[in-house]
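Private note to self, pasted from the team thread so I don't lose it. Backbone tokens:
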């Protein structure tokens, strides 16, 4: 594989295609913050602002400013988005709404913990870029909110009836594996260490089923299997994305055993989740091959594939696994062939099972300026170090 040629491909796509799209189309110059509902050409089709996507874009441009290049426009874009978030994104007590109007009036209550996680990530990264203590304090206070809420993140908006089938989900411990590294410069070492220890155990022991070699999306409160729609659910994209978070933690902790286990899980997951008929990775699967309750189970999504590419190339870099490299080439070919829009900037997000474009939007309620640029940056960084 020509690593340096590939590295250039990923960096060029980031700097000359993806970032200009968001720079040119997502800035709300009248009210602040970002538009994320953008059609194929980048035109705004809805002006609601989703707090987790606002936070993601603040984080993305702050991170690139800190780690790639000190471009003034990147910092200005991050700051303007953060100021909108600071003013309108929460209730005054750092409970972050799910969405607000274009002007900043609350639309949906703070039921979604990912509004919190990405606000914390955003202000933590921006505090490095600006050396602004107010931003650092927002990040810390929000992180404390997350820790307080982690056992019942939806609080009064939790729809489940208590005591009958109490389950816990994989997504929060998964994201805490990443968030703990993003915010480590701001929080007490004992809190950082305990958070890392807990989420590592949850991801690698509680949700991971050794007998299957796979990670379950939901388990009972005592870590057991639940033979129900939720309990049988596998989300290959979540599992694969989380494994590069685990690899990063393994590097930080000097734990080769964690890295090797992450690679093992990633390879088992991509083999399980790959659509052998049409190519690409399924969105949702049932461990017993029963029908899923998610009707979109067979769609192919942008974030699943770009996150998988990060995991596979990191797995190769850290362990030399040829199987990771072979899968990276296979997923790379599928991703660039099907998700990249060859006529307009940015990538498609939603394909049907056959790999045909299902929705030609470039951004919406769930897709924003995050997975693709973060993935292109991460993969380029690893490829530049490969030989």
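Design output:
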């Amino acid at each position: 594989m020509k690593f340096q040629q590939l590295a250039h491909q990923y960096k060029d796509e980031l700097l000359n295609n993806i970032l200009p799209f968001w720079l040119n189309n997502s800035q709300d110059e009248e009210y602040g913050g970002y538009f994320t509902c953008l059609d194929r050409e980048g035109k705004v089709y809805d002006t609601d602002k989703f707090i987790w996507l606002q936070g993601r874009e603040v984080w993305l441009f702050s991170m690139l400013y800190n780690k790639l290049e000190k471009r003034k426009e990147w910092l200005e874009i991050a700051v303007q988005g953060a100021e909108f978030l600071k003013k309108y994104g929460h209730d005054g007590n750092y409970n972050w709404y799910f969405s607000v109007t274009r002007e900043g009036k609350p639309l949906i209550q703070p039921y979604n913990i990912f509004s919190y996680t990405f606000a914390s990530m955003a202000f933590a990264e921006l505090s490095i870029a600006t050396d602004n203590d107010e931003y650092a304090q927002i990040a810390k206070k929000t992180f404390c909110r997350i820790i307080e809420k982690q056992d019942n993140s939806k609080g009064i908006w939790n729809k489940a009836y208590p005591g009958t089938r109490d389950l816990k989900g994989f997504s929060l411990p998964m994201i805490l594996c990443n968030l703990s590294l993003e915010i480590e410069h701001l929080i007490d070492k004992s809190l950082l260490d305990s958070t890392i220890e807990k989420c590592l155990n949850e991801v690698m022991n509680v949700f991971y089923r050794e007998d299957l070699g796979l990670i379950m999306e939901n388990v009972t409160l005592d870590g057991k299997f639940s033979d129900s729609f939720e309990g049988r659910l596998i989300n290959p994209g979540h599992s694969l994305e989380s494994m590069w978070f685990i690899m990063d933690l393994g590097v930080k902790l000097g734990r080769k055993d964690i890295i090797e286990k992450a690679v093992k899980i990633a390879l088992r997951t991509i083999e399980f989740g790959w659509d052998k008929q049409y190519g690409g990775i399924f969105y949702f699967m049932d461990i017993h091959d029963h029908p899923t309750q998610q009707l979109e189970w067979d769609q192919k999504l942008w974030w699943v594939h770009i996150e998988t590419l990060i995991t596979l190339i990191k797995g190769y870099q850290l362990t030399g696994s040829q199987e990771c490299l072979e899968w990276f080439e296979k997923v790379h070919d599928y991703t660039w062939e099907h998700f990249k829009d060859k006529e307009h900037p940015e990538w498609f997000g939603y394909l049907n099972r056959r790999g045909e474009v299902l929705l030609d939007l470039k951004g919406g309620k769930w897709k924003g300026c995050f997975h693709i640029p973060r993935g292109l940056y991460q993969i380029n960084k690893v490829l530049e170090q490969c030989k």
